[in-house]
Specification:
Low-confidence stretches: none
Helix content: 25-40%
Number of strands: 3
Mean pLDDT: 89
Largest sheet: 3 strands, antiparallel
Number of domains: 2
Distance between the termini: 44 Å
Shape: elongated
Radius of gyration: 18 Å
Length: about 110
C-alpha cells in the first residue's frame, strides 16, 4: 500500500502530514509525521547568505541563528536536546544541520 493511501491528516499551513503504517500482522502500527521543509530551507539559505562569518551580532542580545521545521524540533524535543543548552548548541553547530542555520558562525 502506498503512503498516499495511508495519510490520515495533512496541514496545508505547516505542510505536515501524518501517515499511518500498519505492521504486516496488523497488530501494531506506527504514525509518521513528515514535513515539506523546502521553503524553510530556501529562506534559511537566503538569510544565511546575507551575512559574512565576520558580521558582528547586534547589541540587543537576541539573534536569529536558525529556523527549524516543526517535525525536526519535535524530534529534538523528544530526545531531550532542546532542554539541554550544550546539546542544542552542539546540534546547531553541527555541519549536518547547516540547512537550518540562518547565519554563519558558531552559536
Amino acid at each position: 500500500m502506498s503512503d498516499d493511501n495511508n495519510i490520515i491528516s495533512s496541514d496545508p499551513e505547516t505542510k505536515i502530514q501524518t501517515i499511518f503504517h500498519p505492521s504486516d500482522d496488523g497488530n501494531k502500527f506506527v504514525l509518521e509525521e513528515r514535513q515539506d521543509a523546502e521553503e524553510i530551507v530556501e529562506v534559511n539559505r537566503y538569510q544565511y547568505n546575507l551575512y559574512d562569518q565576520r558580521t558582528p551580532f547586534s547589541g540587543d542580545g537576541f539573534h536569529k541563528v536558525a529556523s527549524i521545521p516543526l517535525v525536526v524540533l519535535m524530534d529534538l524535543e523528544a530526545k531531550g536536546i532542546t532542554r539541554d543548552p550544550k546539546a542544542f548548541v552542539k546540534w546547531l553547530n553541527d555541519p549536518d544541520n547547516l540547512y537550518f542555520r540562518t547565519r554563519p558562525g558558531r552559536v
